[in-house]
Amino acid sequence: MASFMDSLWDSVWFQDQGAGATSDFNSHVFDIVEHPDRFEFRVAYPGATDVNIMVEDDILSMKMTREEEEVSDTVKYHVKGINNYPFNKRLSLAKVSVEQEKITSSYKKGILTIVMPKSEAAKPSVIAVQVDE
Q1: 57 φ/ψ sector (left φ>0, alpha ψ -120 to 50, else beta)
Q2: Predicted pLDDT at 15
Q3: Tens digits of residue pLDDT in 3-19
Q4: What's the predicted TM-score (pTM) here?
Q5: CA-to-CA distance for 46 and 5, rounded, in angstroms?
Q6: Which domains does the chain have, with CATH numbers?
Q7: Phi then psi for 21, rounded to 5 degrees?
Q8: What are the pLDDT digits (tens) for 76-87?
Q9: 58: left (phi over 0), alpha (psi -120 to 50) or beta
């Protein structure tokens, strides 16, 4: 299964471009969805205190951080599964045709959503079929 996922990541447009990133795709829950008119990238990162999105040279950069929880000496964790690693991803847009100036993002209820409208050339076209009777 792991080799299948590795080959999938190697073949698609949303390859991680972040060399030396502090986290990887497997450390955060995310979705990449293609609609007829847009792509959506959604990542679960609850408690973000700083969110930065930028597009430059066909690279979509996303950075999110959250403040470290202060823990007193009297607190004892039995399980600590929520990490405080920063989310830092750079995704190539070179293989897709999106209208970069129309990319929007929102952060609501711990979910970052980035909407990337497809350019007209990338949208599916409907071709009328003439039927002879």
Answers
A1: left
A2: 47
A3: 444 444 444 445 444 44
A4: 0.68
A5: 25
A6: 16-120 (2.60.40.790)
A7: -65, 155
A8: 888 877 777 888
A9: left
Both tokens of 119, joined, read: 């350019």
Q: Is the dihedral of CA 102, 66, 89, 56 positive or negative?
A: positive
Mean pLDDT of 96-118: 91
The confidence band for 24, taking pLDDT boundaries of 50, 70 and 90, is very low
Q: Collapsing DSSP states into helix, strand and coil, what is residue 3?
A: helix
Say whether 8 sits in a helix, a strand or coil: helix
Query: Around Cβ 90, how many Cβ atoms within 10 Å?
Result: 17
**58 sits in which H/E element:** none
| Confidence class for position 122, pLDDT limits 50, 70, 90 | low
- Compute how many other C-beta atoms are within 10 angstroms of the C-beta atom of residue 23: 15
- Backbone phi, psi, residue 6, to 5°: -60, -40
Rounded Cα gap, residues 46 and 68, in angstroms: 13
Residue type, 85: Y
- Report d(CA 7, CA 43) in Å as an integer: 21
* 116/118 Cα distance (integer angstroms): 6
Q: Contact, 41 vs 98, CB < 8 A?
A: no
